[in-house]
């Protein structure tokens, strides 16, 4: 995936699609997301509530792409992020194309592209590694020790658009070259005109 | 911030048509096994803020269902230079008024019909003039061009509202569907025949 190549090449996760935004805020939120990525990649997700989230917010919200229920409150979020029984063999998390907006004093919105790879701890097809991608909306509160998350919402494409996007990703890299050759061919056969 | 409040407590009993609709949607989701106690957990906002946001969403529904989509700007903060809109069918979200206005009103009729509804509203006040709302969203759409016949969809929607002199106005609208596997699973649950449990229990 392109995002993975960008990350492995060390390219900063700044926006390539969106308009310019507050560069200081962008850098501060980017630092939180980099830390989030490090924690996920270390598989130490129990660190997320204390190091990334705003524990002072009594109604944190999490909208997961695999659950219809919106999770609100620490009782459900703590159990989701760090369940009693480990359900994952491995989880990889990455982001790119970050954009931020200051909403109010001490409140900021972030939107970014997100990808993940997951291996669920179970035998059979469910345990086969899978990839996913979506847009994520996060809201951050400014605390004495930095920005802390109070909302994390995955916004995947709808199912038909998602399938089309996956099909587009499967197109081989040399298809455009192939297509250019076809287009530039001198066609004499009237059936092909 | 005020304490948690039940969503069902906040249903508007005066809007009988919408209650029926919401109940129907809730039933669909409940049959699919989606709604649990945690889904009813409430956010935090004073009653007047919750009611004001609910009123804006009822107005939003009235505009969508009138098919006069250009009027949607009435429920948005037109002074915000960067309104954000994250549709489920568009890969790169919109962030300017020209993008959003073209989406609402592309200059030619592309829809035979579009019906929009919401339920299970939760509101959280983030600042004196800023509120976040999350609700279940249901829509039906029929295109003039492209695949024939109406289709429906459901997701969660996150909206941000700014308090203006004229009332609360959208500054962000983001559709959050289930991921594709779980969306398909949800749809497959819907087509299980009603007597399957009886069949299973008799085995």
Walk me through the structure.
The complex is a heterodimer of chains A (193) and B (203). With 193 residues, chain A is α+β, with helices and mostly antiparallel strands. Chain A has a single domain (2-158), classed as Roll (Nuclear Transport Factor 2, Chain: A), CATH 3.10.450. Chain A is 30% helix and 31% strand. Chain A contains six helices and six strands, in the order αααββαββββαα. Chain A has helices at 2-8, 23-41, 48-51, 74-81, 159-169, 175-183; strands spanning 61-63, 71-72, 88-104, 107-120, 130-143, 146-155. Chain A has a six-stranded mixed sheet with strand order 2-1-6-5-4-3. Chain A is globular, with a radius of gyration of 21 Å. The two termini of chain A are 37 Å apart. Chain B is of the alpha+beta class and 203 residues long. Chain B has a single domain (8-201), classed as Nuclear Transport Factor 2, Chain: A (Roll). Chain B contains five helices and five strands. Chain B has helices at residues 16-31, 47-66, 97-104, 180-190, 196-201, and strands at 84-86, 111-127, 130-143, 151-164, 167-176. A five-stranded mixed sheet of chain B has the order 1-5-4-3-2. In chain B, β2 (111-127) and β3 (130-143) form a beta hairpin. Mean pLDDT of chain B is 84; it is low at 1-25 and 30-41. The chains are: A alpha+beta (193), B alpha+beta (203). Chains A and B meet through β2, β3, β4, β5 and β6 of A and β2, β3, β4, β5 and α4 of B.
